[in-house]
Design goal:
This protein is mainly beta. The protein has 7 helices and 48 strands. Helix content is 9%, strand content 30%. The N terminus is likely disordered. This is Rhamnogalacturonan I lyase beta-sheet domain-containing protein.
């Protein structure tokens, strides 16, 4: 046997050693093997799954990344598979990793074994078909309803999800965030209920619950929870922003509570008098008191002392001088009343600051690492950077719409292989004005900072009347990344050096934290300032992958909300350089954008964007920027559902039943009894390749949030590809999917109906 074949057999046998049934919860530890070059990815089992259909039993399983060895006309090559029903071999599958067993019954038991160079590996544990056909309900334990301090009742629904192998058995567990019905955008006033994050086994066993407590507000922008095996021990950890009052609730096998324990506050905070029983939520009266205190210290504010801001609040408000400084309690109260009752409403009728309540603008902020299996607190550190203030320096009082606690509390998170081998966690704060990101490695004992990026403050001449968006920050190194971030981020190796970069909307940071580029372009005729070179700016949607197979490298497709102040409503860019390849000016907030191979007769992946309300479009575009239609598919989320490598779209939001639709074939699935998340965004809990062949599963909450309903595509595919979870870009993007405005996960290579399989990277052979 040749050395190459010997390596293939050994790899195949080692991979087969961890095969097992996801639904059975089999505890199988993978046998050691030498680490391949490139990113350290999960040791997954075979992910075997079966579903009863009208034509028989559909059976599907994973090809692992290390088993892929080459390419054919229809997919990658590598291990083949023997499929067994009730202990008898019924097929040898070579061209895919799925099979339709027309003779199967509802009680048939299936096993699969890898075959490498004629050598069969061990069979995994047997599975039986899902009783619900192509769907399975993972039972949930819904938190109790609650009441806010002002007497408003709220309930809970399951929201964003993530997956991670928390016990090292090669199977995923499910991490579910619970959102209260009074969850808020950062611009919305009011109290919220607590946020809970649960970890479940596939059978519905609740391992533990993290209660973030009253000092973490509920909403898409606040609670990011990356789940990943950060230290390479085969078991996933979870990290999340916490605060005094966050606690871990552990459960026994019978569902009874075993323990409740607060996180460990840093010693300096304990000495300063902070306690886990503190409540930092502002009441309406508390916010008025907060303004009085801020005004009393006005003459000592560093920006005032430096001469950057008006010396008096009267100057800032444009009124005649009235008071001596420093302000007395009485004078500060009078000015606070004027600010809230006269000045703020004069800027915008929406500035009803007397009703401002429920926000958290002071108190400690932490980052906590939790053990994925038990929820045990591994480390808690101060969140970097802290909020500094209630948003005054961040520009939250400067615009016509006064929104304390808004720009300061815009959080993002992600995972990146910054060194090309080990995963780091990324946490970000801010993107409209000051923009910050920090990268950490978890070494199994403590967080080690890789780098910290800070644009610096965007200068203002008057924090109560200015326009800080679109200005450079004070940092000479990172100042140009302000106002470029989106409501999500992406991670990809854009410069092909084997290390991943952070795509922060219209700017990209290199693996070492340096600015790779920040994209600018010229405003066109009809815009606010024709001929001016400006940032592409902030947007709500971003997609990063190899969109054009005839160009080297990756592309980025984004929507932009700058209206007449943005050079494009949508733009396609070169991911390596940030150069705009094509785009379209809209002059309006272009809120949605999507990509997908929806027209297989067209070369490359199509792109499209929609305007507010989703009724108008900017057109359907080819990869060369040619308009091929004015009607467009939906923009909620995409999913790889069909067996022919085309892209499908998840539609449905609010109380509309979600559906999976194909642009040519029509409706492929109606997810009866479920609902999408995040209001008009219409997001799934998760869309990811969590088991079976390379296609993605759809995870939705049931209407009553009693379960997560997992949908499996039972359409046969003749294409063979390793699990997408063994592509480094796709895997970290799945971990990122829970962040703020959920965006689809994409692989690092071109995946469409006209894929050249010889160009698909082979994990471990990069």
């Amino acid at each position: 046997m040749s050395p190459r074949k010997t390596r293939l057999v050994k790899t195949c046998v080692a991979a087969a050693a961890v095969v097992g049934l996801v639904l059975a919860g089999q505890d199988v530890q993978a046998s050691p093997r030498p680490a391949p070059p490139g990113p350290a990815l999960e040791r997954l089992d075979r992910g075997l799954v079966a579903a009863r259909t009208a034509e028989g039993n559909f059976v599907s399983w994973r090809l692992l990344g290390q088993e892929a060895t080459g390419a054919s006309a229809t997919g990658v090559t590598g291990a083949n598979f023997n499929l067994y029903r009730d202990g008898r071999r019924i097929a040898t599958v070579t061209d895919s990793t799925n099979y339709l067993d027309a003779a199967g019954t509802a009680t048939s038991k299936y096993q699969v074994a890898a075959v490498c160079d004629g050598h069969e590996g061990p069979r995994g544990k047997a599975v039986v078909p899902w009783t619900g056909g192509g769907r399975y309900d993972l039972p949930l334990r819904k938190p109790a309803d609650g009441v806010t301090p002002v007497g408003e009742a709220y309930t809970y629904s399951a929201n964003d999800l993530s997956v991670g192998d928390v016990d090292g058995d090669g199977q995923y567990e499910y991490i579910v965030k619970w959102d209260p019905s009074n969850s808020k955008d950062v611009s919305q006033v009011g109290y919220t209920g607590n946020v809970f994050v649960d970890t479940y086994r596939i059978d519905g066993t609740l391992l533990y619950r993290i209660d973030l407590g009253v000092n973490v507000r509920a909403g898409a922008h606040y609670a990011q929870f990356p789940v990943y095996d950060f230290d390479g021990d085969g078991r996933a950890e979870m990290m999340i922003k916490t605060a005094p009052g966050t606690k871990i609730i552990r459960y026994g096998g019978d569902g009874a509570v075993l323990s409740e324990k607060y996180i460990t506050m840093p010693k300096d905070d304990v000495l300063a008098g902070y306690r886990n029983t503190d409540d930092y939520r502002l009441s309406a009266a508390g916010y008025h008191r907060h303004i009085v205190d801020m005004f009393r210290g006005w003459d000592r504010h560093p920006e005032v002392v430096a001469g950057h801001w008006p010396a008096t609040l009267e100057q800032a408000f444009g009124i005649e001088p009235r008071y001596p400084y420093p302000l007395s309690e009485t004078d500060a109260t009078e000015l606070a009343d004027y600010f809230m009752d006269v000045y703020a409403p004069s800027r915008s009728a929406r500035n009803v600051l007397r009703a401002f309540q429920g926000f958290i603008v002071d108190g400690p902020e932490y980052l906590t690492v939790f053990e994925g299996l038990s929820g045990r607190e591994l480390q808690t550190i101060h969140y970097k950077p802290g909020r500094h203030d209630d948003g005054l320096m961040w520009g939250d009082y400067a615009m016509a719409r006064i929104e304390p606690g808004n720009r300061v509390d815009r959080f993002l998170s992600g995972v990146a292989y910054l060194d090309g081998r080990n995963p780091s966690v990324i946490f970000a704060r801010g993107y409209y004005t000051r923009t910050t990101l920090v990268a950490y490695r978890w070494n199994g004992r403590r967080l080690v900072e890789n780098w910290f990026v800070d644009s610096g403050w965007t200068p203002m001449t008057n924090p109560f009347n200015d326009g800080p968006h679109g200005r450079d920050g004070t940092s000479p190194k990172w100042g140009t990344i302000t106002t470029q971030g989106d409501h999500s981020l992406s991670v990809a190796d854009v410069d092909a050096d084997g290390k991943q970069e952070i795509i922060y909307g219209s700017a990209t940071l290199d693996d070492n934290g340096d600015v790779l580029y920040s994209s600018f372009d010229v405003l066109p005729e009809g815009s606010a300032a024709p001929g001016q070179n400006v940032r592409l700016g902030h947007g709500d949607a971003m997609h990063v992958t190899d969109i054009d197979p005839d160009r080297p490298g990756l592309e980025i497709f984004t929507a932009h909300e700058g209206a007449t102040f943005a050079p494009y409503g949508m733009a396609m860019r070169d991911a390596r350089t940030g150069q705009v390849l094509f785009g379209k000016y809209s002059g309006r907030d272009t809120g949605r954008a999507m990509i997908g191979d929806v027209l297989p007769e067209q070369r490359g992946i199509e792109s499209w964007a929609s305007l507010p309300g989703g009724t108008d479009s900017l057109g359907l575009y080819t990869v060369k920027g040619e308009v091929i239609g004015t009607t467009i598919p939906g923009t909620n989320q995409s999913i790889r559902w069909s067996g022919d490598l085309t892209t499908q779209i998840l539609n449905g939001a609010l109380e509309v039943t979600p559906t999976i639709d194909d642009w040519k074939r029509g409706r492929l699935l109606t997810a009866e009894g479920t609902r999408a998340n995040n209001g008009t965004k219409g997001n799934a809990g998760l869309i990811a390749d969590i088991f079976g062949d390379w296609r993605e599963e759809l995870l939705m909450r049931t209407t009553d949030s009693s379960a997560i309903r997992i949908y499996l595509s039972t359409e046969l595919t003749g294409h063979k590809l390793y699990t997408l979870m063994h592509d480094p870009q796709y895997r970290v993007e799945v971990a990122r999917q829970q962040t703020t405005y959920n965006q689809p996960a994409y692989p690092s290579f071109y995946l469409a109906t006209d894929t050249d399989w010889a160009k698909v990277p082979l994990p471990g052979r990069r």
